[in-house]
Specification:
This protein is of the alpha/beta class. Helices cover 41% and strands 12% of the residues. Helix 12 (364-375) packs across helix 13.
């Protein structure tokens, strides 16, 4: 009997019971959609917009206060507690003509030898040249309210700073014997915050404090006939004018002449370039530069890629199964089920491409087509398992992973390269696929 060669026929083509659910394009990305990105970042965006709006509102409010005369302390037009509109009204009732100016040029045109000039530079806009021009004005009485550091240098021929005075509503300052007629008309004034001055030259002081006087009057070296330095001008404000003899003192000092010019410096006294930055704090530019440097440093520190934790190669071998289990635990803790399935699919596609002899650089669609031909499964099933299908729960992901293993096992059986670890033969290859679980609940999705 002549032996006949044994012939093996490939397993019959079977139809899969797998239903394609939610197929997507093969090249679909797993990056967050715009809606997901907005849902994650909207809170911080709203916080940033709120801070910007709040900053703009504060800047506008502050600018409105500074730009209006009502917001400047000791302004003769301000009805606020820090203004002096009440004093101006009383002076006008006593026959004194009060004229307000906001530039040094206008002030020079408004004064005359019979004028009382009040200088209130609370915004510290006057420089040394401006004070020199003021001291050369031919006026009868020059009154300086709380001069700043530059202004003090130009009135030191009349008064010098002797100390600071804090506000004390329960105490008052007595006029003293050196005040003359002013002491008898206004014996006491309020103790307000400001500076105390000591007289120099032929000057004399009124309203004695701890270290000096609240008011000093002398002739000085300038063109003015008389110069008065008031170190505590808050006694002239609307909030304090009615206390003690503040009103009497103010009327007697400021109302000596029928014409009074009240000079409040403004941006008109500054050069154009300086006026633009008049309200910019000096510390702002260094602070901005420091923040920029800190931001760049933070970006470099947190954005650079770290190198290997150990520069030298260590003689340590990690078993492959431990690596797989460790990565699987990480995927499970992070809820990255789709990433885990992608890793399984990529490995399966690489091995099937190698088994089919078409190279690992072949597209995923071509590998899936080759897999369908070798494993004798429907093309749609191979594409669904290896590329397109997205699991909706953990059970479907396990079924897809098993389906990938089943396709690889069929391809190995078809090409005669059984896996050593599985111990299967071509005859042992099942002819049907285990069906994937049906969708249980559309809302039962991963929390990724």
């Amino acid at each position: 009997m002549t032996p006949t060669a044994a012939t093996t026929s490939p397993p019959p083509r079977q139809t899969s019971s797998v239903e394609q659910v939610n197929p997507i394009e093969p090249n679909a990305t797993l990056s967050p959609t715009p809606r997901q990105w907005w849902r994650k970042s909207s809170a911080w965006i709203y916080i940033g917009i709120g801070l910007v709006v709040l900053t703009l509102v504060m800047v506008l409010i502050r600018g409105a206060q500074v730009s209006s005369a009502d917001g400047i302390p000791l302004s003769p037009d301000s009805p606020r507690p820090s203004g002096t509109k009440a004093l101006v009204s009383v002076l006008q009732d006593h026959g004194v003509s009060v004229q307000q100016t906001d530039s040094l040029d206008d002030t020079e045109n408004a004064v005359s030898p019979q004028t009382t000039l009040v200088v209130s530079d609370t915004s510290t806009l006057l420089d040394s040249d401006d004070w020199e021009r003021i001291r050369q004005l031919n006026v009868d009485h020059l009154i300086v309210l709380a001069p700043n550091y530059t202004g003090r240098q130009w009135v030191k021929d009349v008064a010098q700073v002797a100390g600071a005075q804090e506000s004390d509503p329960e105490q008052s300052l007595p006029a003293g014997s050196d005040c003359g007629d002013l002491g008898s008309r206004a014996p006491r004034i309020s103790t307000t915050s400001g500076s105390e001055y000591s007289p120099t030259g032929d000057a004399h002081g009124c309203y004695r404090g701890e270290n000096g006087y609240a008011l000093v009057t002398g002739s000085g070296d300038g063109a003015a006939t008389k110069v008065t330095v008031i170190g505590q001008p808050l006694a002239l404000t609307n909030g304090n004018i009615a206390s003690h003899a503040n009103a009497a003192m103010a009327i007697n000092v400021l109302g000596e002449n029928p014409h009074l010019v009240w000079y409040v410096p403004s941006l008109k006294d500054l050069p154009e370039q300086t006026a633009r930055s008049a309200y910019v704090p000096q510390w702002q530019l260094p602070a901005i530069i420091l923040l920029i440097i800190a931001g760049i440093t933070a970006c470099v520190a947190y954005g650079r890629r770290f190198g290997p934790l150990v520069a030298e190669r260590l003689p340590v071998a990690v078993p492959a199964n431990e690596t797989i289990e460790g990565r699987a635990r990480l995927y499970g803790q992070a809820g990255a089920h789709i990433h885990a399935l992608d890793a399984i699919r990529i490995g399966t596609l690489d091995r099937i491409a190698d088994l089919a002899g078409i190279g690992r650089n072949t597209s995923a669609e071509a590998v899936a087509d080759a897999c369908a031909a070798l494993a004798h499964v429907p093309r749609d099933h191979a594409h669904a398992v290896l590329i397109t299908r997205i699991p909706e729960n953990a059970g479907e992901m396990v079924d897809l992973a098993n389906a990938c293993a089943e396709l690889e096992r069929r391809v190995r059986a078809a090409v005669g390269r059984e896996s050593k670890h599985r111990g299967n033969t071509a005859s042992e290859t099942p002819t049907t696929f285990a069906p994937l679980r049906e969708r249980r609940n559309p809302d039962d999705r991963f929390n990724s």
